[in-house]
Amino acid sequence: MTTAGQQDQAAVPRVVSILSALLQRVAERNDAAATAEQQQGAAGRRQPVSAFQGLTKPSISVGGYLERIFRFAGCSPSCYVVAYIYLDRFLRRRPALAVDSFNVHRLLITSVLTAVKFVDDICYNNAYFARVGGISLVEMNYLEVDFLFGIAFDLNVTPAAFASYCSVLQSEMAYLDHPPPLLDHCYSLAAAGAPDHHHHDDPAAGCHHRHSHQQLTV
């Protein structure tokens, strides 16, 4: 017999858990890199001043936060793929910004908000998204504007680009189900740290290993 809680859990699209796992891994890796630099007394590369950077780590996990957005914001599954694309575009244009536990939640709520307005016919307003995300309306509005300028208002997503990022998420799903023991999984999502004008919206174009702060390379 299936309980109501199990039915609710089953209703969460797999794309939500896949995207949250990807971002959680990137944030933890960058957290570890920053901690190692501090312990070694190295100057390291400091995070740039950013509206997305919080002073403390939120108590809710990335997975719990994205699931909360799904349950209360009513976004279609396609929105999470488009949010993933927008986040990649944002990070390509801000290569000095590393996704970590201090900014990943704000980046998520803002990228999903931006995506739902572009993809879905009906969506909640910024005040509602601010409550879902646990931030003020003023901050939500500011983050949205900063994010839009960060992606140069490049909101259009071609079918080819959408399919390409879906393939990346499918690869992530396979990785989660059967993780290779020794391989360093890599997806690119702003992996190169700078825009690749020859491979725009190709998530595999800049995939490579990095030894310092990583963007969305996993």
From TrEMBL:
Superkingdom is Eukaryota
**GO terms for biological process, alphabetical:** cell division
> Per its record, what are the GO molecular function terms?
protein kinase binding
Keyword tags: Cell cycle, Cell division
Q: What Pfam families does this protein's entry cite?
A: Cyclin (PF08613)
Family that this chain belongs to: Belongs to the cyclin family. Cyclin U/P subfamily.
Record-given protein name = Cyclin
**Phylogenetic placement of the source organism:** Eukaryota, Viridiplantae, Streptophyta, Embryophyta, Tracheophyta
